[in-house]
Amino acid sequence: MASAGKPRGERRTFIEEARRAQIIECTIAVLASHGYAHASLATIAERAGISKGVISYYFDGKEDLIAQVHAETMMLVTKLVLPAVATEVRASDKLRVYIEGSIAFVETHAAHATALLEIWNGLRTPEGRPAFDARSHEPGLEFLEGIMRQGQKDGEFRPFVPRIMALAIRGAIDCVLLQRVAYGDKVDLREAARELVALFDAAMRDVSGPRPTSAAPPPKARRGRR
Amino acid sequence: MASAGKPRGERRTFIEEARRAQIIECTIAVLASHGYAHASLATIAERAGISKGVISYYFDGKEDLIAQVHAETMMLVTKLVLPAVATEVRASDKLRVYIEGSIAFVETHAAHATALLEIWNGLRTPEGRPAFDARSHEPGLEFLEGIMRQGQKDGEFRPFVPRIMALAIRGAIDCVLLQRVAYGDKVDLREAARELVALFDAAMRDVSGPRPTSAAPPPKARRGRR
Amino acid sequence: MASAGKPRGERRTFIEEARRAQIIECTIAVLASHGYAHASLATIAERAGISKGVISYYFDGKEDLIAQVHAETMMLVTKLVLPAVATEVRASDKLRVYIEGSIAFVETHAAHATALLEIWNGLRTPEGRPAFDARSHEPGLEFLEGIMRQGQKDGEFRPFVPRIMALAIRGAIDCVLLQRVAYGDKVDLREAARELVALFDAAMRDVSGPRPTSAAPPPKARRGRR
Amino acid sequence: MASAGKPRGERRTFIEEARRAQIIECTIAVLASHGYAHASLATIAERAGISKGVISYYFDGKEDLIAQVHAETMMLVTKLVLPAVATEVRASDKLRVYIEGSIAFVETHAAHATALLEIWNGLRTPEGRPAFDARSHEPGLEFLEGIMRQGQKDGEFRPFVPRIMALAIRGAIDCVLLQRVAYGDKVDLREAARELVALFDAAMRDVSGPRPTSAAPPPKARRGRR
DNA sequence: AATGAATGAGACTTCATTCAT
DNA sequence: AATGAATGAAGTCTCATTCAT
User: pLDDT tens string for chain C (226 positions)?
Assistant: First the structure.
């Protein structure tokens, strides 16, 4: 039950917001380094240098904590990737920026990315079924499908089932993240981004005929990759 | 500890082997239906209609049981997919059969496939690090890379980094499995197989020049981004 | 520990007295609605719209708070029932008024009555022994016994052991309260009062012989039973 | 969830039945001596000289344990009181035997009686409402009401509301138990039984006129009360 | 006079593991 | 070869209490 005394309303003091952020940050770190199953409240509290009770004070139990970490991280990755995608006009450019941005997120926010993967894989319903299963990919998948349908309408992409293509993109990015987690710096993320962009460009581009909108060159100057 | 009397050597009676197989089978079923974290020895024993002690008798603890389930399942999937691949000659055909076989395995051995995913995601070292992380993909990845290198040598495939392409294939297949787990029959595996084959065929095939056995395949010009 | 600065002496400012009364009132409400075990300081503070610290400021811990709630409520029920009893002369009338008043208290002060029951049942010494056990009934029991002895001396009542009769009256009233708590409005308290009066009148009245003080008619007109 | 491995089926081994009985016995003792709120599993296990886990092994959690203690004790008191009641024919005799039996149970099974009272008072729903509130008295109350209605039909009892009379009887007995708990041997249970029988006999007996079935004298010889 | 923040003990539960039979 | 019984550690959660501000 949402017991009393916890500052879960809208009004948040400065110190409270700081603690909350600190706990979330530590949870991400522990998720990344210990894995979902070993991310106990005790470990998290120890890392934060606080007592376990504080976590219960700020969050409605472990489930709530994990859910908020998930939401916060999803918001972060969305905020970092989507705006860049929105600046592009052509579907192929959108996808390129999406892939590049996703891989860049893995590089700049390794712990966040790993924690996200842990949550996706580890969070379960009481009966053991995945709680953030493929369903939690939905928003991202639908976003990708939207881009693909646009590309197909514009004649930029060949015909294919958008859902499968979107799955392939997500799976590829996640698999690269896994490699990064396993092998660390030995995995060249720049190269991975470059290759994945080329891979899916080749996989989707329509080479069967003349570009329908050939008269319409890229409406904006080619943006350098970095 | 590996106490004396346990039949863990090579010599195994028939009944022993049967028990062992039964336990492994039940573990797979429980992993698939309850998830890694909820797959307790009690649940497995109950499903097998035996007492928990028997599991300890045949396996050196839970970790050992899971490891053997993993090995057994990997062996199974390998046995079902690789021979078919070996009957093909051209790299593109090998890849097609590999993808089709992998997706078919998901369909015919749903529990095995799900259990495998659960183990990959859930099994950890005592410190919390993934025990069957990306490293356990290695054999499969290297197998795929070998096919790709062959295709590139034959001029069938364009130049690309085999490792990344292999990762993308594995990721795509795993993601389709996740969808299947999440959405069940609503996911059309035949369609998925067809689409993935087309996807990676388009992604890899060399369309720049004359066909496969031409005299001079593109050595490695243009590792350009597009 | 009773730290300095807390207004626990006699001298109390108006605002202090108001806070104290407010906390006690809220404690009664929470006891009645949540039960003893679930009446946490957090819940009480929340209901009062104050912080938990205030309660510690005005009371020496939870035990002290409950004790004061008990004392206050006992005082209230005494103040409401005893004066009416005192206006009667004959023992049978006193008992009638006592029962009617007790049941009326249950009706007009439902939360107080329920809270009292919760305290009687729930409050324990640190070792787990009832802290407000039967002993806390003592004043009320002795009061009833006094009335009975008077009635026996006057020849109004037959001979019986006053203590047991007093226990029966208290038990009957408490049991009616329990029914009220459990079944709410479906329990007709007017009827219960009427029946209990008749029950104990029949149980105690001496019908063996002529009224000793038959010459002394009821000194006041029979008060309507409702 | 009813986890696996617990012997909760019908088949019970001897040793298992013994453990189960031992745990229930210890729970009754701890309930009686420590009160409901302080009857933790740790205390119960300590008293039984076993580890906490054993309790979980034999019972589905604390709630289940308490429920079984309740059921077992109710069964015991029923088994001890009801047969004796059934041997009587006249309602007044049935009630006499019921009261005598109930008080005798308090004397011979003090811990059981106290534990029962603790459960009635202490067991709550998650929201804090009584779980074995007055409702759990229902069977007993209805049994008493049945006797009373028979007595009224036979003309043995005067008219009154059976439910209130039944409540009064239960309340009186419980209150005597409370006194016993509080004052121990100083409370004379024989006297209490004698007095309560006389009390309720006087309260219920119809003295208004001739016995309706006066022609039918007591069908069996008066059984000496002691 | 009051508050928000933090603590730490204690409760219940789950589960891998051990052991006598 | 197998079982039932038992253990003990670890996890999550609640809550009275303390304390600096």
Answer: 334 445 545 556 888 889 999 999 999 999 999 989 899 999 999 999 999 999 999 999 999 999 999 999 999 999 999 999 999 999 999 999 999 999 999 999 999 999 998 998 888 877 777 777 767 788 899 999 999 999 999 999 999 999 999 999 999 999 999 899 888 899 999 999 999 999 999 999 998 755 444 444 444 444 444 3
A90 part of a folded domain: yes
CB contact under 8 A, B45 and D4: yes
Nucleotide nearest to C51 (CA to C1'): E3
Q: Give residue-wise pLDDT tens across range A115-136.
A: 999 998 888 877 777 776 666 7
Distance from C-alpha of C141 to C-alpha of C123, rounded to nearest angstrom:
20
Residue of D138, D141, D178, D183 to mutate, testing the C interface (most C Cβ within 10 Å of its Cβ): D178
Burial (CB count within 10 angstroms: exposed 0-12, middle 13-18, buried 19+), residue D129: middle
One domain, residues B25 and B125: no
Residue ranges making up the domain that contains D98: 62-204
Q: Model confidence at A10, in pLDDT bands (50, 70, 90)?
A: low
CA distance A65 to D155: 69
- C-chain CB neighbours of D198 within 8 Å are 160
Question: Is C44 a member of any domain?
Answer: no
User: Are B152 and B42 found together in one domain?
Assistant: no
Total structural domains within chain A:
1
Q: Is residue C102 part of a domain?
A: yes
Cα torsion through C69, C71, C77, C81, rounded to 10: -170
From D189, which residue of chain C is nearest by alpha-carbon distance? Answer: C164
Give long-range contacts, CB 8 A cutoff, 24+ apart: C81-88.
C81/C105, C82/C143, C85/C147, C88/C220
Q: Which chain C residue shows the shortest CA-CA distance from D175? A: C171
Please state, in angstroms and rounded to a whole number, the distance separating the CA atoms of residues C160 and C137. 20
Residue B65, nucleotide of least CA–C1' distance:
E16
Residue B11: phi and psi, rounded to 5, are -65, 115
Same domain, B98 and B133: yes
Residue A114's CATH number? 1.10.357.10
Residue, of D182 and C20, whose pLDDT is higher:
C20
**CATH number of the domain encompassing residue B32:** 1.10.10.60
Kindly state the tokens that stand for D214. Answer: 């006066």
Q: For chain A, which chains pass the contact test of at least 3 CB pairs under 8 Å? A: B, C
Tell me if B4 is assigned to some domain.
no
Count the neighbouring beta carbons within 10 Å of the beta carbon of residue B223: 12
SS3 C124: strand
Q: Are residues B112 and B145 in the same domain?
A: yes
Nucleotides of E under 7 A from a protein CB: 1-20
pLDDT for the residue B222: 46
Average pLDDT of span A10-32: 89
Task: Specify whether B52 is located in the same domain as B78.
Answer: no
